[in-house]
Amino acid sequence: MSIWLIIILLLIILLALYTAVTYNGLVKGKSSVLEAGSAIDAQLKHRNDLIPNLVETVNKFASNEKDVLGDVVKSRDISQATLDSNADLNEKMAASDNLTSALNRLITATEAYPDLKGNVDFDKLMKDLSNTEDKISYTRQMFKSTSNNFNNSLRQFPASIVAQSFKFSPFESLKTEEEKKTAPKANFKA
C-alpha cells in the first residue's frame, strides 16, 4: 500500500470520527435545550394547578375582589391553553407573564384581609406558589443558558459544517415584553 493511500484513509477516518463526535455533541446539546424547555412547561403546569386552590381560598375571605379573582382565573386558563397546545415557548412565557401580573394584583388585594393572611391554607399555597415562581425563574435561566450554548456550538467552525449538513437549527431566545423589564414604581401616596 502506498503511503499516500494510508494518509488519505487516515484523513477519512479522522474526518468521520470528528463528524460523529460533533454530531453526538450537537444531539446532546439539543436534548439539553429540549429538556430545559420541558422543565419550564412542568413548572408552569404546577403553578397553573395551584391557582384554583388559591382562588378558592381567597374567595372565602375576599368576596369583594371578584374582578381580581376573575383576572387570575382568565389568565390561568389562557396559560393552561398555551401549555396544552403546541404553542412555542415564547407564547407560553407571555401567557405566564400575564398570569404573574394577575397573581401580583391578587396578592396586593389580599393585603387588606388580615384573616386571609393568617390562614394556614393560604400561607401554604403562597409559599408553594413562591417556590414555584423561583423554579420557573431558574428553569428559564437554564433554558437560556443551554440554548445559548447550543446556538453558539452551531455557529463555531468547523462544527457549523456538521450542523448544516445534518440540518440542526438554532433555538429561539426567550423574549421578555418591554414593560416586564422595568421595575414597577411604588406609590405610597394613597
UniProtKB/TrEMBL annotation:
Pfam families, A to Z: LemA (PF04011)
Membrane topology value: Single-pass membrane protein
InterPro entries linked: LemA-like_dom_sf, MamQ_LemA
Subcellular location: Membrane
Keywords: Membrane, Transmembrane, Transmembrane helix
Gene Ontology cellular-component annotations: membrane
Lineage: superkingdom: Bacteria
Family note: Belongs to the LemA family.
Protein name: LemA family protein
Species this protein is from: Oenococcus oeni AWRIB429
